[in-house]
Amino acid sequence: VNRTIGQRGLHATTTPFPNKLAFAFDIDGVLKQGHHNVLPQAKRVLELLSGSDGRLPKPIPFLLITNGGGVPDEERRAILSEELGVELTENQLVQSHTPIKEYVEKYKNKPVLIIGGKGESCRRVAESYGLKYPYIPQDIIAWKPSIWDRTELTNEEKSFVKTTDFSKISFAAALVMHDTHDWGRDITLILDLLSSNKGIFGTRKKGYDKSNFKGDVELIFSNADVEWRSDWPIPRLGQGAFRLSIENIYKSITGLNLPFIQFGKPFKSTYDFSELMLRRYLKQVNRNSNGELNVYMVGDNPLSDIDGANRHGWSSILVRTGVFNDNNGELPSHKPTIISDDVEKGVEWAIQEEI
Ligand code: G3P
Ligand code: MG
Prior knowledge:
Blueprint (H helix, E strand, L loop, with lengths): L20 E5 L14 H11 L11 E4 L7 H12 L8 E2 L5 H4 L7 E7 L3 H8 L4 E3 L1 H7 L11 H6 L12 E8 L2 H12 L23 E4 L5 E2 L7 E2 L1 H16 L6 E2 L5 H17 L9 E6 L2 H11 L2 E5 L18 E3 L2 H12 L1
Parallel strand pairs: 1-2, 1-11, 2-3, 4-5, 4-6, 6-7, 7-10, 11-12, 12-13
Antiparallel strand pairs: 8-9
């Protein structure tokens, strides 16, 4: 049987097709390195799996699962389709906050502070999830600049802030939708809400009784990555580092552990949601959506991609193009099925395994 994959690809006549095989790809550090740098191996792999290069007798299903976000799912899918050169359908992209859509249903008629990104993009994500009263930090600064006087609104920000008297607004939750561009401002606003009376800025709960302190505002994070791989060759701090700083400040001020809800890889809610999404995609392309699946997760971060895949019972392929680096013999914190130089070598190994 001809088992070569490489340049000549699978030969349908001689090789059984890997019908149970599917892939879950992380984005940053696997398909991309930073906002504008798509890895050439990534393009070749997605051409192979989508069938667009004709090397496969039929497509091998895949989806993308990222701890990135900050742009409405539909918008990000269109951008990624363009960048990666492959047509992604609605069931092929899970962003850090995609699984949160169902969770925030209970807040749809309540004011929610939406943290993350530079401009209004995260507000638009919130609106796309049905939240009717999403406010962003710039709205608060526009109302009372002295809340955090280290930040001046830019003219662009002044053009989109929502002028509101927040002394009458009772926030139900603070949702960190994406990495913030102003840690000091947003840590301050989050701590204000957590210690407020009924989520009203400018108020303070009376004292912190360690035994029964119950904040009125729920704090939700969408990504626990302490580090991630951007254009810079050394990993950069992510939303998980932002959360750690809030945890430490909150502890030093109140003596209490920060109360929060965490979404994103490696957590169960994200992998359960992604499995549902994958099966919806299989149904959409008339493949066996209820049958047994052998999913291979390809990631660069052992703490999010490998740990999550292993816990979910998927195979895991750890690549060397992102956060993980074993140049000095470092072993990954979570053991993958294999370690591979890059996504292309990893995919070819997985196909060999499955034929
Ligand atoms: O902010 C994105 C970063 O935390 C990691 O994204 O695609 O590697 O899960 P990704
Ligand atoms: Mg990554």
